[in-house]
Amino acid sequence: MSAKAIREYDAKLLVAHFLGRAPQFGTACPARPEFKAPEVKVAQISWDPVSNTITPDSSLPSWVFSEKLVVKPDQLIKRRGKAGLLGLNKTWAEAKAWIEERAGKPVNVEGVLGTLNTFIVEPFAPHPSDTEYYVCINSVREGDMILFTHEGGVDIGDVDAKAAKITVPVDGDLPDRAQLKDGLLAAVPTHRQDALLANYGEYSGAPTKGQTFEYAKTILDLMTRGEPHPEGKVLIIGGGIANFTNVAATFGGIIDALKNYKEGLQRHKVKIFVRRGGPNYQEGLKKMRLIGETIGIEIQVFGPDTHISSIVPMALGITKPMSNGVDSAPNGISAAHKAPNGTSVTSPPSSATFAATVVPESREEHGVVSFAQGAPAQRPWFRPFDETTRGLVYGLQPRAIQGMLDFDFACGRKIPSVAAMIYPFGGHHVQKFYWGTKETLLPVYATIAEAVKKHPEADTLVNFSSSRSVYQSTLDALEIPQIKSIALIAEGVPERHAREILHLAEKKKVIIIGPATVGGIKPGCFRIGNTGGMMDNIIASKLYRPGSVAYVSKSGGMSNELNNILSLTTNGTYEGIAIGGDRYPGTTFIDHMLRYEADPNCKMLVLLGEVGGVEEYRVIEAVKSGQIKKPIVAWAIGTCAKMFTTEVQFGHAGSMANSDLETADAKNKAMRAAGFVVPDTFEDLPAALKKVYTGLVQDGTIKPSPERDPPNIPVDYKWAQELGMVRKPAAFISTISDERGAELLYAGMSITDVFKEDIGVGGVISLLWFKRRLPAYACKFLEMCLQLTADHGPAVSGAMTTVITTRAGKDLVSSLVAGLLTIGDRFGGALDGAAREFSRAKDTGLTPREFVDSMRRANKLIPGIGHKIKSKANPDMRVELVKDFAKKNFPSVEMLDYALAVEDVTSSKKDTLILNVDGCIAVCFCDLLRNSGAFSREEADEYMQIGTLNALFVLGRSIGFIGHHIDQKRLKQGLYRAEQSDIFIEMGNTGISDRVVVRPS
């Protein structure tokens, strides 16, 4: 990952904060006990372009106004003193005027034009010129290099040439005070040497459719500003061959942005050139071409059969557009490119031996295939991977592991390359994966030690640990002699950790690939993690069988491009390693190039370097000394860096030139002089590869053999479904809510609008239960029902059951469910029955008297009629509230009026046979369903039949049950046991004479 510089202000705050808190390393040169970190005095002044003002005085520390000051810009500008951007010995008033004079003004510093907007202010410390010193600590691969010179200041000159240096090895001891004095301070007067001893350090991803849309929108907005250029404009959308990104899906965001800027693109006469490869790229390019026709913009699209950067000269009119081949591009997983010039591929025999032949066991149960355990393999030093390699994967990475197993199956391996997984947080179980069309189980262990003990044949570790935990897990692996190679996938590994790992690995003779790498691939043998992308790219690039060309690069993203180029111009890849883009990769170019040189099956080498670092020069020296004799085609990426006036970094932490030697141009020139085949441009790389390969075929170094048909690999169902290749009926249907979009929807209404319109709980019920917005009075009625049914004291059966369950020590859910299970015909479940019976009677034309008589003849109680305590003379206020609300707000209360007429009949017999709260809510709900205008008669009848009315009581009473549970927990009530007097036990009629005794025969 890239490294970013920080401002001097932030750097000094960090040093001041951590200097006194840093732990002591070793005993050779400890900090003196009396050492006290000085108080930090540094202030930042910023210019606001909107108000054209600088940081107000009220925001500055008090010392600024009382001390003499140094003031300078803080924008990563070097040599500020020589550029006249340094103010010395100034009061705050003078410093402020100095800043205001320069803030917001364009300044040219060494050919770079920019605006000054951030400044730093510090106390001025006057001193003689011979007392200013320079100290710096640079991190290098071997350790930390301390540079010191007694000639500091603005005229310091070339530090590298004049400074004294001491290197502190990664795994070595810190120098003591005597070594520091002798090695660094020889030119400093003796009485000042102790004062100079100090510590200072300088420490130098798949987008969603929405993210792609926002990014494209920004680019298009910039392109369509201002007046149109007479020659129009060109937009280049270039990308490598993706590993797993659905190209069509991400292009969807770009397409939406193009639609938004249709008029601007037309006005500016924008032409668009697109090159992309990877999963579903054909569909993505097709969509891009069609959107061009739709919005009237010229869009030319190219797939992976066009070189990654060829569209640049095409777009600029330097070369003519090539056939893009999108229509004829491989559509499925079984397609592959043709070999160059009709040649076939050589499949070199493997020289690896296996102590025991490893074949699948014959037993297969229920479509699950299992494999016998092999013995440790013996391989030559230059071939860490072959068709018998077995590895461990650290971390739960099912997608990567499935990709490795699919690759194994495509290569014709007899046993999967993954032996087991290691997951410290949940080991000792199995995970299921596909082996072709069948399934297999892989064990998961908690520790590396346990995994290697159970799988002695596994000698490779693919470590997917995060940057936080990769250090310790790798140290654990390095302690196990069985592990011979480790791939570190994580980005962001601290450089100090990376250096310690690589030095320990050198001692242990373990190959480290990474960190910050996609890994590597040995076609026909072994794949590290996600290298090579999805299976369609594996097949298209012929990675299922070995070729003759081995490559090493820093960039994992360029691996797919190299695999693709080699499949088009040669007989394919023999092995490919991406060492990683961090400053300190575990192995470097030379480590792998020497392996390839020693491997008789590898006939041709490719080196893809980049700007920054000097590792390419080690390969150059090996070629000059005769260590490497095989032909090398090479290129260093980053030749465009010279076009920028400022330092530029190309993504990786190490891809930035710190000297002329580290520029891409210097490396390409040096490699060409050493006898490498170096093309003039990156676009010429395929032609150079083809030329060298053809020469090797003609001189007999490479002997072509028949190309075998690519294997048929089953497509993953989920991916096939995403591509629209298969369909499957949904197991469930839901029509009330949707969480898949930008925000949650309730029956089509966004959660934002739910709160914006303040529809309340009643409104939410109307959306989720009835899938429509009900009138305000209806929502209020629903809320009223919940309030009225929330509780009716602790004595009712549901509340009592909840209380007893709570006192038995059960949790909230158990106690709530216990109470809810008591709801039925006898308790709380009368709403549906009342609605059903009253509506049936009224709809069939029965008078209230006839309805009562018919129920009596059927020996049925009338649901919703009757109360244990309340009567006509002592009415239930809950019923009165519901009646009053309905009569005041409902369009019609004909069902309520009918129920009240029935009440007159029943109460004449007994005063407590009144319309209770269940019955009142039920008949009012019938009036609401039938007369609100929101439901058809069929819908109203259906809602009464499917339990909607009882749902109101269940939801409302849940509030009370939860309250009783919380109340009992708060009161810390113990286990309940009924009083003996509350239970009548009668055993008189169950004597021995009444029992049937079954005697044994």
CATH topology of the largest domain: Rossmann fold
CATH class of the largest domain: Alpha Beta
What is the residue-averaged pLDDT? 86
**Number of helices, where a helix is a run of at least 4 consecutive DSSP H or I residues:** 33
Widest sheet: strand ordering: 20-21-19-18-22-23-24
| Helical proportion, percent range | 25-40%
Number of strands: 33
Structural class: alpha/beta
What portion of residues belong to β-strands?
15-25%
Low-confidence stretches are 195-204, 323-365
User: What radius of gyration results from the CA coordinates?
Assistant: 40 Å
Main sheet: strands, sense, barrel: 7 strands, mixed
The name of the CATH superfamily of the largest domain reads Succinyl-CoA synthetase domains
| Domains, number | 4
Catalytic activity: oxaloacetate + acetyl-CoA + ADP + phosphate = citrate + ATP + CoA
Subunit structure: Composed of two subunits.
Function: Catalyzes the formation of cytosolic acetyl-CoA, which is mainly used for the biosynthesis of fatty acids and sterols.
Domain ATP-citrate synthase ATP-grasp: 2-196
